[in-house]
Amino acid sequence: MIAARNDGSPWEARITELMGRMTLRDKVGQMTQLAINVLGRGPRLYDSDTPFRFDGQMLARVFDEYRVGSILTAPNNTALTPGEWHRIIAEIQQRSMQSLGIPCLYGVDSIHGATYVRGATFFPQQINLAATFDCGVAAASAECCAREMRSCGLPWNFSPVLDLGRMPLWPRFWETFGEDPYLASRMGCALVGGYQGDDRERLPGTRVAACLKHFVGYGSPASGKDRTPAAVAPCELEEKHLRPFREAVAVGALSVMVNSGILNGIPCHMNRGLITGTLKEGMHFDGVVVTDWLDIANLCERDRVAADLRQAVKLAVNAGIDLAMVPYDLQFCRDLVELVEAGDVPMERIDDAVRRILRLKFRLGLFDAPSATDGVWLPEFREHAAVARRAAAESIVLLKNEGGLLPLDPGRSLLVAGPNADSKRTLNGGWTLSWQGETTDGMEQNGSTVLEAFGKRVLRLFHAPGVAYSPGGNGSGEVELDQTELLGMARTADAVLVCVGENSYTEKPGDTEDLALSEAQQRLVERISRVNRNIILVLNEGRPRLIGRIEPLVRAALWIGLPGSYGAEALADVVFGRISPSGRLPFTYPKYPHSLICHDFKHCERATGMDGAYDYSSRLSIQYPFGHGLGYTTFEYACFRASARSISPEESIRFSVEVTNRGDREAEEVVLLFISDRVASLPPDNRRLQGFRRIRLAAGQTAGVSFEVEASRLAFADGCGRFIVEEGEFVACIAGHTLSFEVTRTATIEQ
To answer: Is the pLDDT of residue 641 over 70?
Structure first.
């Protein structure tokens, strides 16, 4: 059992004194988290009246009798005004403080802005932030989100997602930072810093606690379906999937949420080796480990590893769970009390969990200021729009620009078509004003649709959708509209902007059987191409829908992902040349449904032909590679150098390159450094991303870019829990320029 105390924290004496006055029931209550609807009046447990009203009997039962320590989500899964949030949080905190003298910990999923707050600024989703390769803009987005949350009294954010996006079918792909572990690590640390600030022991009233999700391997289900088993080789788990969590814990993340699914045959919520061994002991994590929604009950009801809820509670708490997202039933409290009294759950495990929960509440300053100071939207929040727009602009990826069709002259006539052309819902995606984002078009107060944004720029603008999404739910249904008028307008327009992709979704409702772009949308592009070849394809999607059939039919293509409130304005800036596109794909865009691969593949996946009777050559077929992205200018790379030709495992090496803007306009460039191991005792990756830098250069300007790489970062997992950097040759690459260097001896690297 790990030590409950953290003598480096200034709160331990106060926590010890407080816990000395707490009964077992008090402590178990602190380990319980309920959905807000439980506290409200309404027709049933899962729904509450609108406007939200507290049920006095439930308030007494939850706080006075059961001493519940945490509440989550929004009433009826619907966004509230800041004033409504302030009223609700203030009443909850007043009751919690009166009953036990301990504030309540309120948590929400605010993954790209204050999800459940009307008027909130919605930033690009994580997959878009990754496409910026700009940790500064990612941190700024998180900081703005934290301010808006905390002004409503919401102190705990279930973000960032550190699962790797290595399975593009997965419906939460867009919630990740893409496929690369180094990029995910850097971006994850940036969001943690933006949410929490610099002092993890005393968060100011404008910051929130981050929660790393979902520990671990959740994003790689073999089937591509949400909450289904993942099989990840131990080496890959150590090298890739655990890395973002390890680094975000090291910079001070205050909480971690556990993977809902099954990893390598074991449900994560009962995996003591993973939660206690790897996270708490191995990473020295002193924060709170929280379950995902209903996942202790799922150990018996779904995964069939427990005969009943009581056994499931025993498995999960003994594995290291601190806080149970129940979220509707108080049976957890009763079962856990009985388990401790029977000796099936050690009291020291309870004390460890409660100490962690109280530590988080002290760190958030909730004991001194349980509620927000006011319930008004601060005027300076208007400045957040500029951060959101900048982030959206940096994230847009120009995939194709045949014959220099873009940038477009706003004086030319333009037809805007496609189901995503006049929708804020599709620009934002899930977790926007509601879980599935279905309320966005009627509730979002900021930004514009693509049609609205382009209507402000083009004098001769026409619109006909051609295809529409069925209303409500996850929006997977589509309706093919009469396209006679649309095709007539397409014949006369100078260009056609076709906005295709997906409607909003997340989690299980977003499961798909087919990664291809819908048949109706592909037919729309095909029909337009017969009358007008000047098609600009806009991919507004949460995962890379296959476009191999229609990509040859368009002259330009832009991936905009899920760019948030101001994504349409950013798209117009790019299309009309106000800015040069500078986003880069943070994932490998597949071309075929059964050819899914990541950029750090093994060499056998691209084997050349053999001499002799048999040919075992391999072929890689992808639509666009990781890091792909075009612009409106040309950058030239030269003078690629290294500070040394050989280094020891304890040393670092500096790489430098000169980049020149050879075009006639100012633009930004993302410089990517890859390193590959020539030969290793286990098959090395084809390459690994080891550095990235975003730079801005005026026309004709040259700038030097350098990267410092520690030899320890070249290590790989040996399958026995050790990281090894081996003696031998490595190759560094920037923009096609390569050079070799050596590591002089083999060494074990401490993580």
So the answer is: yes
Which position among 109, 292, 295, 685 bears the catalytic label? 292
- pLDDT (tens digit per residue) in 654-670: 999 999 999 999 999 99
Task: Map 355-408 to HEC letters.
Answer: HHHHHHHHHCCCCCCCCCCCCCCCHHHHHHHHHHHHHHHHHCEEEEEHHHCCCC
Please state whether beta strands 646-647 and 556-559 pair in parallel, antiparallel, or not at all (unpaired). Answer: unpaired
545 vs 521: CA distance, rounded Å: 11
Dist CA 611 CA 371 (whole Å): 73
Contact status, residue 170 vs residue 224, Cβ threshold 8 Å: yes
The residues near 657 (Cβ < 8 Å, ≥ 6 apart) are 637, 638, 639, 640, 641, 671, 704, 705, 706, 734, 735, 737
> What pLDDT does 248 receive?
98
Confidence of residue 2 (pLDDT cuts 50, 70, 90): very low
Query: How far, in Å, CA of 78 to CA of 376, rounded?
Result: 19
**Residues linked to residue 742 through DSSP beta bridges, in sequence order:** 646, 729
pLDDT at 1 (0 to 100): 43
Q: What is the distance between the alpha carbons of residues 459 and 412, in angstroms, rounded to a whole number?
A: 8
Q: Which residue has the higher pLDDT, 176 or 594?
A: 176
Burial of 83 (0-12, 13-18, 19+ CB in 10 A): middle
CA atoms within 13 A on the CB side of 2: 25
CA distance 113 to 565: 10
β-strand pairing of 737-743 with 747-749: unpaired
Mean pLDDT to the nearest integer, 519-541: 98
- Which amino acid, one-letter code, is at 180? D
Q: What single letter denotes the amino acid at residue 111? A: I
Tokens representing 108 are 């929400």
Evaluate whether 564 touches 128 at the Cβ level (below 8 Å).
yes
Q: Is the pLDDT of residue 251 over 90?
A: yes
Mean pLDDT (whole number) for 482-489 = 98
Q: What is the pLDDT of residue 373?
A: 64
Q: Is the per-residue pLDDT at 751 higher than 90?
A: no
Whole-structure pTM value? 0.97
Helix/strand/coil percent split, the chain, to 5: 35, 20, 45
Structure-token pair, residue 38 = 């439980």
From the list 261, 252, 160, the residue with the least C-alpha distance to 213 is: 160
CA angle 40, 46, 48 (to 5 degrees): 35
Percent pLDDT > 90 in the chain is: 92
Q: Angle CA(293)–CA(294)–CA(300) in degrees, nearest 5?
A: 145
Characterize the bridge pairing of strands 70-72 and 32-35.
parallel
292 catalytic? Reply is yes
